[in-house]
Amino acid sequence: MSKRKVVSLHDDGALALPLSNGCKLRVTAFHETPRIALTIHGPGGGDRGGVILSPDRARLLASWLARLADGMTDERPAAS
Q1: Over the stretch 29-80, which tens digit does the pLDDT of each residue have?
Q2: How many domains, in total, are found in the chain?
Q3: According to the 3-state scheme, what is the secondary structure of the chain?
Q4: Which CATH number belongs to the domain containing residue 24 in this structure?
């Protein structure tokens, strides 16, 4: 098991999405390099982990999420 520590990025431009159990998914763009951080923070503010993505990987992940979300929308029965 890795002994690396996740360091919180405090950025006013970070986007946060509330998750279950009081956790949050934060998306932060780096200003110094073309990278994007996706981090998960626990209900008490504790870090749960994350990943650093290049622009190409971020776009790939975004396309996967959009494709899956579109598939869910298409499968819903029409409202009557």
Answers
A1: 988 899 999 999 888 777 788 999 999 999 999 999 999 998 887 655 655 5
A2: 1
A3: CCCCCCCCCCCCCCEEEECHHHCEEEEEECCCCCCEEEEEECCCCCEEEEEEECHHHHHHHHHHHHHHHHHHHHHCCCCC
A4: 2.30.31
